[in-house]
Design brief:
Strand 3 and strand 4 form a beta hairpin. The longest helix has 13 residues. This protein is of the alpha/beta class and 122 residues long. The protein has a seven-stranded mixed beta sheet. Strands 2-7-8 form a three-stranded mixed beta sheet. It has a single domain, classed as Hypothetical Protein Aq_1857, Chain: A. Pfam families: Fe-S_biosyn. This is Iron-sulfur cluster assembly accessory protein. InterPro entries: ATAP, ATAP_core_dom, FeS_cluster_insertion_CS, HesB-like_dom_sf.
Length: 122
Amino acid sequence: MSTESADSSGSRPRIEVTEGAAEEALNLLEREGFDTGIAGLRLFVQQGGCAGLSYGMRFDEAPEEDDSIYIHHDLRVFVDPASLKYIEGSVLDYEHGLQGEGFHVENPNVVSECGCGESFRT
């Protein structure tokens, strides 16, 4: 298990989280009754969608043994090794807009997305 913090060495973290996304996720974690000192947001990639891959998110009570853990603005983000190769360098943000609001992954590895933006290909 490896842990990286937003404040660690001068190198860029492998996954970043904006302050707005961290705040929203922490609020949701607390409302669901999770201990925000241990629990976190799991970010993963799964097969699916018209472009081949899609993002998934859920809350987990604790990380798995082989997870990488990223801590930004007090939010713990868990990423499994298989997903990390697809989302390394990504930024998790929370967007408010006319089409609704929700979490959005800005992924530099994406070469194409489906028309609805729900799936991608690297």
